[in-house]
């Protein structure tokens, strides 16, 4: 087993399920002290229990928070520093897909909701973590963008707009903070079988969503969904010292789905 995170402190948002959980588990296995953040307290407790089954001595701080609330974000950053003394890594991951509809029919309230979580929430996290990392002189941030952040996604105006914004924030902040020993990068997952993707398929067809999923992945060269743990491996690498010269860029993890772009 790697021990790339011995004595390191990592914050993960959206840690209650999906990519947040898989990344938390992988990084805990490698020795990190974790601050786990999610809006759902029960999901956070489940994540903690699953991690302790594998890593009995894992040290974790659990914080229930809404990333769209800047004061809540500032609070979990401050609590992490107060408890652990530093922040080595930040997986800025929390997000939602939102409802599906043509742009002309896409609700303005829905658009604002998706952008407030997916884009504003990412910005708030970066803003407050970057202050800490700049002062430290080290740190790595990984933002969750999407293939929907590097190409269009039909019927998902809010999601596509927010994830394109995450890509822009990532590149901009990486340019700004590289001189301080801080790197900022993003991942662009494709179709990964998470609860969010399952929910998206059920929006398309509540009854035959599994069949819809089989058709959904056919344009992918690998003809399958990705696994959350496959993303967890990538996130762990990007947050580790092995990736210290990767900065201001976006890395697809999509089985080749975005090769045309």
TrEMBL record:
InterPro entries: NAD(P)-bd_dom_sf (IPR036291), SDR_fam (IPR002347)
Molecular function, one GO term: oxidoreductase activity
Gene3D superfamilies in UniProt: NAD(P)-binding Rossmann-like Domain
Keywords annotated in UniProt: Oxidoreductase
Coiled-coil residue spans: none
GO biological process entries: bile acid metabolic process
UniProt family annotation: Belongs to the short-chain dehydrogenases/reductases (SDR) family.
Protein's recorded name: SDR family oxidoreductase
Organism: Bacillus mesophilum
